[in-house]
């Protein structure tokens, strides 16, 4: 990741309500530019994290240094930006002598969706507070905080800490170009699906298979995901940015819809005709059992520019760690995460 320095000024009340903030950040790009400017964009557009601050200003600068080029890692720039904002929250809590979580809760975005982010994106589906309260219960935060204090009082050379932090993360489908081919084998009704994404542990193959099975109302066992190849699906963008899975799934749904339209005369209105019977009848009548779906930045191929993020996901984490103050060894005792995954 890019080493980053931040200088900030923050205005707040004695009750911990933040009224204004100004953050200037400086990121070490190394001796060449890799994706530093994209990283800075993400850092600035998500630095507000979970908090509504009415008077908000940020700047970001890329620094060229005589060091190896720094590059992107998961959530490029966002981790740095969120860390900066959480540091600000902690400082406000320290200055006001309030519990950090109280300061966080006072400054959360409201659930009513009337507030917008600093770049003007609406928060129409804000589940942050529900996620936060669920985590406090699941993690037994109050009880364990008292247990940590008792542990620290009883142990001189080993100390524990427990903390909760929220995250609001923006997801965009802008700029993705993805394709999907669906081929149905007439012999046994098997549905072969090829897509332009790359499976690298995020489960994209499973997601595509589930979407196609759901759309076609067939068992998941009938879906076969084929090997990824530019010979099969050319002209796609890279896999990355947390938007590949859903844009590929959108393309898969488009392809499935094309196929369903062709098969409609062979399916009953109640959709209870066995899949194989419908395929047999369609094939006998010369119906094309192959379909393609294409996501070119949106359903019509147009690229969205406003709002920047299509939606936001909300999560929160509670971690308890133990530190050996003599050796510096750190052990994670427990980590609880609550994540709002929507309809899944």
Structure characterization notes:
The protein is built from 8 helices and 10 strands. The longest helix has 20 residues, at about 245-265. Helix 1 (about 35-45) runs parallel beside helix 2 (about 80-95) and helix 6 (about 205-215) runs parallel beside helix 7. A 4-stranded mixed beta sheet has the order 7-6-5-8. A 3-stranded mixed beta sheet has the order 1-2-3, covered by helices on one side. It has a 3-stranded antiparallel beta sheet with strand order 4-9-10, sandwiched between helices. The protein has helices at about 35-45, 80-95, 100-105, 130-140, 140-155, 205-215, 245-265, 275-285, and strands at about 5-10, 20-30, 55-65, 160-170, 175-185, 190-195, 225, 290-295, 310-325, 330-340. Helices cover about 30% and strands about 25% of the residues. It is of the alpha+beta class and about 350 residues long.
Total count of strands: 10
**Alpha-carbon Rg, integer:** 25 Å
Order of helices and strands: EEHEHHHHEEEHEHHEEE
How many helical elements?
A: 8
Biggest sheet: strand arrangement: 7-6-5-8
Task: Kindly report the average pLDDT value.
Answer: 92
Give the fraction of residues assigned to helices. 25-40%
For the termini, the CA-CA separation is: 31 Å
Structural class: alpha+beta
Could you tell me the strand content as a percent range? 25-35%
Largest sheet: 4 strands, mixed
Spans of at least 5 consecutive residues whose pLDDT stays below 50 are 299-304
Shape by Cα distribution: elongated
């Amino acid at each position: 990741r890019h080493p980053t320095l931040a200088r900030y000024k923050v205005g707040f009340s004695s009750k911990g309500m933040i009224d204004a903030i100004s953050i200037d950040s400086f990121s070490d790009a190394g001796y060449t530019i890799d994706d530093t400017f994209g990283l800075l964009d993400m850092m600035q557009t998500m630095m507000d994290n979970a908090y509504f601050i009415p008077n908000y200003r940020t700047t970001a600068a890329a620094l060229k240094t005589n060091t190896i080029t720094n590059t992107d890692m998961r959530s490029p720039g966002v981790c740095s930006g969120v860390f900066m904002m959480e540091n600000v929250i902690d400082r406000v809590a320290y200055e006001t002598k309030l519990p950090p979580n109280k300061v966080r809760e006072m400054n959360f975005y409201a659930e009513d969706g009337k507030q917008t982010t600093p770049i003007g994106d609406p928060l129409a589906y804000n589940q942050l507070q529900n996620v936060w309260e669920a985590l406090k219960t699941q993690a037994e935060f109050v009880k364990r905080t008292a247990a940590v204090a008792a542990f620290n009082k009883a142990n001189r050379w080993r100390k524990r800490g427990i903390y909760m932090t929220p995250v609001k993360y923006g997801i965009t489908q802008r700029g993705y170009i993805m394709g999907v081919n669906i081929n149905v084998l007439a012999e046994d009704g098997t549905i072969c699906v090829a897509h332009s994404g790359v499976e690298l542990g995020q489960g994209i193959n499973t997601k595509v298979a589930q979407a196609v099975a759901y759309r076609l109302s067939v068992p998941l066992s009938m879906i076969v995901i084929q090997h990824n190849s530019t010979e099969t699906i050319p002209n796609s963008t890279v896999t990355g940015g947390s938007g590949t899975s859903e844009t590929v799934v959108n393309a898969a749904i488009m392809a499935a819809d094309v196929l369903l339209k062709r098969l409609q005369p062979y399916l009953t209105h109640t959709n209870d005709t066995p899949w194989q019977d419908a395929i047999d009848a369609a094939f006998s009548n010369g119906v094309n059992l192959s379909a393609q779906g294409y996501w070119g930045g949106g359903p019509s191929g147009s690229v969205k520019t406003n709002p920047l993020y299509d939606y936001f996901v909300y999560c929160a984490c509670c971690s308890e760690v133990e530190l050996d103050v003599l050796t510096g060894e750190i052990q994670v005792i427990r980590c609880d995460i609550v994540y709002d995954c929507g309809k899944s």
